[in-house]
Amino acid sequence: MGTLIVRNGTVFDGRSTTGPSDIVIVDGLISDVRANAASSYRDARVIDADGAFVMPGFIDAHTHLALAPVPERKGDHPSAFFTAVRQARIKLASGVTTVRDVGGINHIDIELKKAIRRGDVFGPRMLTAGRFLAPTGGHVHYFSEEVDGADNVRRAAREQLKAGADLIKIMVSGGASNLSEPPERLYMREDEIAAAVYEAHAAGRKVAAHVHPARGIALCARQGVNTIEHGAWIDDEAIDAMLAAGTSLIPTHAVYHYMANASDPRYAELAPVAHAITIEKSERLRHAIDRGIRIGVGTDCGRHFPYDAYVDELQQLCRVGMSEEDVLRAATAVNAEILGIGDKVGTLEPGKAGDAIVIDGNPLDDISHAGKVRTVIQGGVVLEPATLLAHGVVH
Fold first, then answer.
1. What is the spatial distance between Cα 347 and Cα 341, in angstroms, rounded to a whole number?
2. Distances, alpha carbon 173 to alpha carbons 22, 108, 223, in Å
3. For 75-98, how does the pLDDT look when each residue is reduced to its tens digit (9 = 90+)?
4. Res 391: pLDDT
5. Residue 71 pLDDT more than 60?
6. Does 104 fall in a domain?
7. Domain that holds residue 82
8. CA quadruple 172, 177, 181, 184: dihedral, nearest 10
9. What pLDDT does residue 167 have?
10. Are residues 66 and 179 in the same domain?
């Protein structure tokens, strides 16, 4: 693969800004990050950042690459794999070099992960959940493995692990996708949550729980769930349980604002539900941040949120009180730690994957600049956003 040098960038390494530095990537891994490192290497490909902002590739901790709009039904969706490939390219072009995909259709997410690893298609590094585990009639049950009772949960979790899942995703409460699945309702029982956690942890995997009500958040944290997804109505009891257990929150804040305010007729019925979630969510999230809950960045891109709008989530997190630097940390180093891959990605330091992005403008001054990705580097391979988005790829 050879040597690639990104020279003279204003480097944010995932934790702090190091000032003008060179990043040296050898055979896909970072080998050096320091001022004037380029002078020590010959016969290397050099990208002159010319003072531009350089940082680790973004990590999206909540995606659904295989859930572009499809009919709400069980069974085969023949076009889903092709659209998933397209969405993966769009995601990569926006500067996201790693995703945690928390549920798709019929293991298409797992097959997409394999295709990306083989080099068959372009896309982010992926952690995948396989099928959602949802009680009968629960959140997006039409795409899920419907499970009732601890034994059924245990069987379904083992099936996902057998298929190659990197984590287990459980649907503990309703959501905003259908009026028949109210977000305030809890669908999973304590023993069912415990069964999913036991099977995942026994296999060295993590558990992500879709859950909105505070009592459900607390229940999940006490049972050992690793990440709370959405968590709209988090309160102090839930925060106490999460802090005690070391549970992280992926708030996916922007998607509900998007649904509540979109002009798309698909949201005519769902917009009031999304709006109801947003009424309290900002203040509750701000309080959770103030109390020290570890926050990760996830967009919930898929059926209800654009694949190329990662910066929208960063902006929403700034609006609820996080600093630009804390948001960038959450999008890189903190996300990697939450997902259990901090030894591989998330920071620009020797031994990590050569994943970096070059940005026009400084997102530490204005977080909106995070959407101005000039160059994407994944494993030492230089990818131009315009090329990734060529051939009629649109969202």
1. 11
2. 47, 24, 15
3. 778 788 899 999 999 999 999 999
4. 60
5. yes
6. yes
7. 58-339
8. 60
9. 98
10. yes
Pair 89, 120 in one domain: yes
Question: In terms of domains, do 198 and 85 share one?
Answer: yes
Q: What residues contact 85, with CB distance under 8 A and at least 6 apart?
A: 112, 115, 121, 123
For 351-365, the pLDDT digits (tens) are 999 999 999 999 999
- Say if residues 172 and 193 touch (Cβ distance below 8 Å): yes
Whether residue 32 is found in the same domain as residue 72: no
The mean pLDDT of 320-335, rounded to a whole number, is 98
Average pLDDT over residues 310-338: 98
Confidence (pTM): 0.96
- Domain assignment present for 395: no
Inform me whether the pLDDT recorded for 70 exceeds 50: yes
Classify residue 391: in a domain, yes or no.
no
